[in-house]
Amino acid sequence: xxxxxxxxxxxxxxxxxxxxxxxxxxxxxxxxxxxxxxxxxxxxxxxxxxxxxxxxxxxxxxxxxxxxxxxxxxxxxxxxxxxxxxxxxxxxxxxxxxxxxxxxxxxxxxxxxxxxxxxxxxxxxxxxxxxxxxxxxxxxxxxxxxxxxxxxxxxxxxxxxxxxxxxxxxxxxxxxxxxxxxxxxxxxxxxxxxxxxxxxxxxxxxxxxxxxxxxxxxxxxxxxxxxxxxxxxxxxxxxxxxxxxxxxxxxxxxxxxxxxxxxxxxxxxxxxxxxxxxxxxxxxxxxxxxxxxxxxxxxxxxxxxxxxxxxxxxxxxxxxxxxxxxxxxxxxxxxxxxxxxxxxxxxxxxxxxxxxxxxxxxxxxxxxxxxxxxxxxxxxxxxxxxxxxxxxxx
Length: 394
Ligand SMILES: Cc1ncc(COP(=O)(O)O)c(C=O)c1O
Hints:
This protein is α/β, with parallel strands linked by helices and 394 residues long. The chain has 2 domains: 5-47 and 286-393, Aspartate Aminotransferase, domain 1, CATH 3.90.1150.10; 50-282, Aspartate Aminotransferase, domain 2. It has 14 helices and 12 strands. A 7-stranded mixed beta sheet has the order 2-8-7-6-5-3-4, sandwiched between helices. It has a 3-stranded antiparallel beta sheet with strand order 9-12-11. The termini are far apart. The model has no long low-confidence stretch (mean pLDDT 96). Its cofactor is pyridoxal 5'-phosphate. Belongs to the class-I pyridoxal-phosphate-dependent aminotransferase family.
């Protein structure tokens, strides 16, 4: 069967190979004294809090399970708007919010609405791999711009200007980023947006980890800049609802009917049950629980990263958000008798039964030196993983 050139362009998720090998080995060592510890997983180890679970049950029992508006329940858009006001002090009217099937659908809608065949979108290298694939699925081209630790592994205004070409349509940033957990400084973001806007381009920011921010300097939404910035967000990370498939996007008002038309045709609407459940995310009791969990994520970061660094796995920029540590494993790999982060990840899995993600999926600039540790795991597992690393690297 002939497969479309578009589908052929989407690269495989190499991470899945590591995940498959880890799952296989996990079965073999499940009964040993060292069962596998999964630090390769990019999702919270928490599930939706009680009020959210109860709201989902109620929606199912009451049978409010029909299609909703393509842009999402009005009440949910209002609550998201209220969250921006209360948590970030930013006025984001509900009419600019479109609820989607996760950030993934929002990114897809944004790319389909704005990218034409051959258009180029600048993004930092390293980046979350699917983001370049959303551009490519819309027949655009993601231009990966290598970044440095000094730039917090983010694009700078200078690099955006230097890499802007005839086909450039805009930038796709992620702040805080996956895999680094680092954000763009708000002043730099303003400068980037000015450059993009002056060229008539689009500033698209994936803010899916914004809720999980630990530093007030960085934990601000790009939506504060002006009403032309497009922000992508989700119930997956801060709200601990990965498998519910619910997210949202905030777009300029003029773009709402365009996104609505695409969403109606491509998805009809996001999951009704997930939307009714998500209304309960914004109850004071749920928000208090989310804040408690955010403190827990922060405590894990603070405990894990210094110990990791002491083992020679340098984390060049302390993450200000999310639950990742982007660590240079060159030295540690040599100690295990291998070169590069791909072999290091497999060696670590075999010898310490600790699964991590090699840098390869996230780009090509220097990513062979880096691995991503996920700290979305219990403190006990994180400490045990460190003890095993210490033993194999000694
Ligand atoms: C940076 C980034 N953007 C988007 C997504 C997709 O998230 P969702 O579950 O909301 O589709 C992820 C998931 O890991 C991510 O890390």
